[in-house]
Design brief:
By secondary structure, the protein is mainly α. It has one domain: 5' to 3' exonuclease, C-terminal subdomain (DNA polymerase, domain 1), CATH 1.10.150. The chain is built from 4 helices and no strands. Helix 2 packs antiparallel against helix 3. The longest helix has 19 residues. The chain is globular and about 30 Å long. The protein starts with 15 loop residues before the first helix and ends with a helix. The mean pLDDT is 93.
Length: 88
């Protein structure tokens, strides 16, 4: 696993803790995150961390889109909110 730690940190919204959660969920590269998608990645994280919140879901989607999660479109945030509420 050389050079894996830190790869995800280059993405917007991904800090050290979220990077560790992603790696623990088997998502250790940007490509794997893109493959999984924000919703599945969030569900995988939620298995180990029941406190996984809506903001974390948005952070993952923002990382995939290459933007700060605050800059996600209203439509995307609404879709993520519906998904989040459905999984509660």
């Amino acid at each position: 696993m050389e050079n894996i730690v830190g790869d995800l940190l280059k993405l917007p919204n991904i800090g050290k803790n979220l990077e560790i959660q992603l790696i623990n969920a088997g998502i250790d590269t940007k490509e794997k995150l893109l493959e999984k998608g924000s919703k599945q990645a969030w569900l995988d994280i939620k298995i180990a961390d029941v406190s996984a919140c809506f903001n974390r879901l948005c952070a993952l989607e923002g990382a995939i889109q290459g933007v700060r999660w605050h800059d996600l479109s209203v439509e995307v945030k609404e879709e993520l909110k519906d998904f989040y509420n459905f999984t509660k």
